[in-house]
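Pilot study result, target chain (213 residues):
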Amino acid sequence: MKNKVMAGTFLWMFVGLLVTFITGYVVSINENMFNNIFSDWSYIILIILELVLVIFLSARVFKMSKTMARISFLVYSFVSGLTFGSVFVVYKLTSIMLIFGVAALVFLVFALLGYYTKLDLTKLGTYLYMVLFASIICIIVNLFINNSVFDTVLSVIILIIFMGITAYDVQKVKSLSDSNLPEDNLMIYGALELYLDYINIFLHLLELFGREN
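Predicted structure:
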């Protein structure tokens, strides 16, 4: 059962990433669509919608039918893709593809670590989320300070945090696969968690090493 759940989790995560990246690319090559999305109010509304969708899905995934859970995850991936168009405009496509591969390798290493380690990562996960929360506060403060060095340091810290959270989330999904939770819904829950981990690893690697247009 563990292998089935993990395989389904990674499959749905990949599908979500595919939807996000394809949507983002389509937005980036359509000038009218891009301008409409990144007008002040449209962008703010989409960001709020993303937050609402991820909170809703995280809180309700085990109370939904498996079809509703899958649709909700795909809708979230699509909405995220709409705002992802800026990545393809700001950075060179070759750089995006290279960083995508590097992020996949980094993600895989920590996912395997989380799956095979005998250590209980629960406490580590708690500490990582605490540091992440503190880092988010620092990011908000830096919006007003606009210190580029501080921004780079924060990116490195958050990158390391999400490497650890990846291992923690994989171990958590593996542990939950022994529970009585519905398999299909657990796959979507795991896919959402790991999707967020991968996206954050990718974006922060891109911020640190990506080549801009």
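One observation from the pilot: The mean pLDDT is 91. A full batch analysis is planned for the follow-on phase.
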